[in-house]
Design brief:
heterodimer, A: alpha+beta, Gyrase A, domain 2, Elongation Factor Tu (Ef-tu), domain 3, six-stranded antiparallel barrel, 20 strands, 17% helix, globular, B: alpha/beta, FAD/NAD(P)-binding domain, eight-stranded mixed sheet, five-stranded parallel sheet
């Protein structure tokens, strides 16, 4: 791990792509992400959003927490760490995982990349080095944080395959969702995974920080032929809700940040029960999750479509118009592509079941005057937006 | 009848044997595995040379509780608590104090101390009685309590509030968590007397008289006294472990010696057997470990089979042994300056003041041994002449505080240290040095190696407040059952802790019978 001894000179670190994004930024809307300075909006939110949905958007992914896990017991270590059965994971594949504490409460989620034999990269939302070290006891495993050593770009959208190919990266045609390959972009070695947080066709490109700008320039050089937009985190927030992706620490309290009893969540409670395999052998939290299965469900984080076009924002959910309060909106967005009010809501169960009716009370402003209205909510089991081109292999050429 | 084993107990120390005897009596088919060539663990007899026999690490003990004696028919199998002994606080100038159960006497003792002693003893025995429910039962769970837990707490509350009465309760609450140093200074003047009581309060623990929580360890020690007076363990048929082994076998338990368990076999969070160092696999639905909790979880089970936080908590169990055992083979009877011959059979203490103890403790904190250690001495051969050839004797000395990790290593310094202790003894017994024909020193490191107790701690974990009751040995395994289904703990590392009480073994057996035998 390279240590930046000058970190104190800057409140926030700059990513290797910063100079380019800074040059494009018309809004100067910056925000902090994992001690890095990143764009909230680079130019215009709607342009960035539609680039993901109908063109190609590029987002700086460098601040994502990254851990390299190697050693003889790395597979066993990861298997004990995460709730999912990872026995089918092999070099060149990526999988989505979550991990829990002893009480079976979610600590974080992440993507697990198998780079080679006994060689893995775990990317997570939050800092996990202490938890990984704590989980390493009894395993012959080496864990290194490489957040600052690997630069990354998310290249997402229906034309992303064509854009990256045009930028000089060959060999993407047979890359299936959750595949991973070591390729080149011109003379720059890059690792490309067909992964993302947008619910669209997309790639994540991993590169040495020293080569970062060369990669950026190669991608943006094709701007004449394709719509390629630099994207900030605001657009990402919209598309990830459309895709139905949960964000630990925002949509629910993670086990390590929850202070009050019952303010943390189990995988089932946040709709990630499908990532738990109780038959795969021991993992941290298994016993607690087995016990949870015996009890009626207490709550669920669900996807809802809220009637009407008033932005939902922060709102309580009731079991009927003027009914009993049963939950709250955790995140919400107006979906320009679906023309609908989408939200993730945390709802309390009664006798293990969700209430049959859900209504949101929406408080909104009209010319700075607060008004209130009721809107019925419809539960949506599937992702709100999941286009067919997302998983086509090879992807369509543009 | 099939050969099926219901329960495997790892370690035939006294707690393992108690547990085996109780379970066998309840009709379970029990197999007790012991890595040594004799049952007894730390209280198994030891021999140096050919003819000098020692009763084991525990050389003086209180009787086990009457219920256990009755339940396991221990008298029938030969158990008999030995002759009651006093404690003698040795003084370098020969002004020794005899510290009895209710009387203290000796040259230079003030009237006020002599008068205060019986009252102090009485009050502290009442305190010990008040917290008795905590020791007799499994520690209550605080989260979701079972009915039995509520009973335990109700009894405890009743005992403390109504049993003690308002004034005594206030006093109990004042002193329960503080140190013995302050309490004794409040009551007594005499350094020798305070030293003797304080030495007992901290015996076996990495604590000095000024360490918080040493009133609790003192009250814990007094629990034993409620069963009868202390006696010297003199080996032979009357020894507790001998009777326990007989009782367990009589009830149908099998004790297998020279069977070293290397691994507890676990699948999907469930224990199903053990693997011996020979490679042999033995299966049972219930595995009960009398081994140290730290080795049970980290070596026998292995962290990968545990949840991450629990595994880490195991490594944070505090318990570094600070007591060495010195065994001396003597060609004659030692004489102690100023001590009547009739008292040489008592327990002799060299802990002339609380400051002396505290200073000795200080060294162990910095990986040094003290030039002036605290010594706890018995002469078992005075109670059983078969332990040594005619006219010869054996002397057993607990030496506190002796570091587990001695700076520079034990290898080179062991003999030097043994001679230092012998010459210290010589200050009180001038003829001793010339009588020594052989010796054996067991440092905490040796105790770890020979008895598989991590860091050589007698009690498999410090008896500190944060590791007591519902936190002993640690949160998540304090009710004898563990996060591994079918795996239980029954050793000194569990509540109520070390000492020749058999209580962890008995409580564990009760727990197994309550929750472990469900089909």
């Amino acid at each position: 791990m390279k240590i930046n001894h000058d970190h104190f000179r800057q409140a926030l670190q700059r990513t290797p792509f910063h100079d380019r994004i800074n040059a494009m930024s018309t809004t100067e809307e910056w925000m902090a992400w994992n001690t890095y300075k990143v764009a909230r909006v680079v130019d215009k939110l709607s342009i960035e959003y539609f680039a993901v949905r109908s063109g190609c958007a590029v987002m700086d992914l460098t601040p994502m927490e990254k851990y390299r896990i190697t050693g003889k017991d790395s597979r066993d270590f990861l298997d004990r760490l995460v709730t999912r059965d990872i026995s089918k994971l092999r070099p060149g594949r990526v999988t989505y995982v979550i991990w829990c504490n002893d009480e079976g409460r979610v600590i974080d989620d992440g993507t697990l990349f198998q780079l080679g034999e006994d060689d893995y990269r775990l990317c997570s939302q939050h800092h996990q080095l202490d938890w990984l070290f704590m989980s390493a006891m009894g395993f012959d495993v080496h864990i290194e944080m490489e957040t600052n050593d690997v630069a990354a770009l998310a290249v997402q959208g229906p034309t992303s395959y064509s854009v990256l190919t045009a930028a000089g990266i060959d060999g993407l045609d047979q890359l299936k969702p959750f595949d991973l390959a070591d390729l080149r972009c011109g003379d720059v070695p890059v690792t490309v995974s067909r992964t993302g947080y947008t619910g669209d066709l997309g790639y994540e490109v991993w590169v040495e920080p020293a080569d970062a700008l060369q990669l950026w320039d190669a991608i943006f050089d094709v701007r004449g032929r394709y719509d390629v937009q630099a994207m900030g985190l605001s657009a990402l927030e919209i598309v990830r809700i459309e895709a139905g992706f949960v964000m630990p620490g925002f949509d629910f309290n993670t086990a390590e940040s929850a202070v009050r009893k019952d303010y943390d969540r189990s995988p089932h409670e946040v709709g990630l029960g499908w990532l738990v395999d109780l038959d795969k052998g021991h993992f941290t939290g298994r016993k607690a999750l087995l016990a949870e299965k015996e009890r009626p469900a207490r709550r669920r984080l669900i996807k809802i479509v809220v009637d009407g076009n008033k932005p939902v924002g922060e709102a309580f959910i009731y079991d009927g118009k003027n009914g009993k309060q049963v939950g709250e909106i955790k995140c919400a967005t107006w979906s320009p592509i679906l023309k609908a009010n989408l939200a993730l809501a945390d709802i309390e169960c009664v006798n293990g079941r969700l209430p049959s009716k859900l209504w949101a009370r929406i408080d909104y402003q009209r010319e700075l005057k607060w008004l209130s209205t009721w809107a019925e909510c419809e539960v949506q089991p599937e992702p709100f937006y999941s286009p067919a081109h997302r998983s086509a292999t090879p992807p369509a050429r543009f | 009848m099939t050969n099926r084993t219901d329960a495997i107990i790892i370690g035939a120390g006294h707690n393992g044997l108690v547990c085996a005897a109780y379970l066998a009596r309840a009709g379970m088919k029990v197999l007790c595995l012991e890595s040594a060539d004799a049952a007894g663990g730390m209280s198994a007899p030891r021999t140096i040379g050919e003819n000098y026999h020692f009763p084991g690490l525990a050389h003086a003990a209180y009787p086990v509780c009457p219920t256990m004696r009755r339940d396991l028919k221990l008298e029938k199998f030969g158990y008999a608590p030995g002759k009651a002994i006093d404690t003698v606080a040795l003084d370098a100038n020969g002004k020794h104090l005899t510290v009895g159960t209710n009387i203290v006497s000796g040259k230079g003792l003030s009237d006020s101390d002599e008068k205060a002693y019986p009252g102090f003893r009485k009050q502290h025995l009442i305190f010990a009685k008040a917290i008795r429910p905590l020791f007799d039962n499994k520690p209550p769970r605080l989260g979701d309590m079972e009915f039995a837990d509520m009973t335990t707490l109700a009894k405890l509350g009743w005992n403390i509030r109504l049993g003690l009465g308002r004034e005594a309760m206030n006093e109990f609450l004042r002193i329960a968590a503080i140190n013995i140093y302050d309490v004794l200074n409040d009551v007594f003047e005499d350094d020798r007397l305070k030293g003797a009581i304080a030495a007992d309060a901290v015996m076996g623990c990495a604590m000095g008289p000024r360490t918080p929580g040493t009133v609790l360890t003192w009250l814990q020690r007094l629990q034993g006294e409620r069963n009868g007076p202390m006696s010297v363990q003199s080996g032979g048929q009357t020894q507790l472990v001998h009777a326990l082994a007989q009782s367990a076998e009589d009830a149908g338990a099998t004790i297998r010696l020279d069977a070293h368990v290397e691994k507890i076999l676990v699948e999907n969070g469930k224990a199903f057997g053990v693997e011996l160092s020979s490679g042999e696999m033995l299966k049972a639905r219930i595995i009960i470990s009398n081994a140290d909790p730290r080795s049970t979880f980290t070596s026998l089970v292995g962290a990968p089979q545990l949840d991450a936080m629990f595994a880490n908590r195991v490594t944070q169990i505090r318990g570094t042994g600070v007591v060495a055992k010195l065994h001396l083979a003597l060609s004659g009877k030692p004489e102690f300056t100023g001590l009547p011959e009739s008292q040489t059979g008592d327990r002799l203490l060299i802990a002339p003041s609380m400051k002396y103890i505290e200073r000795a403790f200080n060294h162990s904190k910095y990986n040094e041994y003290s030039e002036n250690p605290v010594l706890d001495i018995t002469l078992p051969s005075l109670h059983n002449s078969a332990l040594a050839p005619e006219g010869h004797h054996v002397m057993s000395v607990n030496v506190s505080y002796v570091p587990y990790d001695l700076a520079g290593g034990w290898e080179e310094q062991k003999t030097t240290f043994a001679y230092k202790v012998i010459s210290q003894l010589g200050q009180y017994s001038p003829n001793l040095k010339s009588l020594v024909v052989d010796h054996e020193l067991l440092t905490p490191r040796d105790i770890e190696e020979q008895f598989h107790a991590v860091e050589g701690h007698w009690h498999h974990g410090e008896l500190s407040i944060h590791q007591s009751f519902m936190m002993r040995p640690l949160h998540g395994a304090a009710q004898y059952n563990t996060p591994i289904e079918g795996l239980f703990l029954c050793g000194a590392g569990s509540h109520p802790g070390g000492g020749l009480t058999g209580l962890p073994g008995r409580n564990a057996a009760k727990r197994v019978l309550k929750i472990g035998v469900a089909k």
